[in-house]
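step 3/5: co-fold with 4'-phosphopantetheine
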Amino acid sequence: MKAMYPGSFDPITYGHLDVIQRALKIFDELWVVVMVNPKKKPLLPLERRLELIRELFENEPRVHVDNHDGLLVEYAKNRNIKIIVRGLRAVTDFQYELEMAIANKHLWPELETVFLMTDERYSFLSSSLVREVASMGGDVSRWVPANVLEALKELYGKGVL
Ligand code: PNS
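step 4/5: write tokens
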């Protein structure tokens, strides 16, 4: 069975990678789709975010990396993917995720959203936290893979450890 894991991935973190690895135990193929969140202004350009994710999964043929500018259901319908995977951390994620899951189901009733509970190691981790710490020169190396660290260094200079 195939599923899709949509998100902003700005940047991709170990929390996202954990969700992807666990989703691969459940689904045969996973489409990681970088999408536009109209509520957020991205830090990394779309192409850079895609490139970083592609590098991480170049040896994993079951992961497909793509992007879509538009409705999530549009992409899902076009590819006939009926399962959305999302990670769930604290209770603060719940309202936002519920709203999206219900909206998407209204738009395409065949769609199901499946939530994977965060691994406790990453329960506090978010891309926005990584962006904030990196922008102020803090060490984010325990939260993001090496290629993402490099991308953040390029952006913020040598201050990022
Ligand atoms: O990583 P994020 O920012 O929490 O991901 C949110 C995302 C990109 C999945 C969401 O904003 C989205 O689906 N955007 C595409 C537009 C869309 O379909 N909106 C309707 C769903 S409520």
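step 5/5: annotate
Helices lie at 14-26, 46-56, 72-79, 92-107, 127-135, 146-156.
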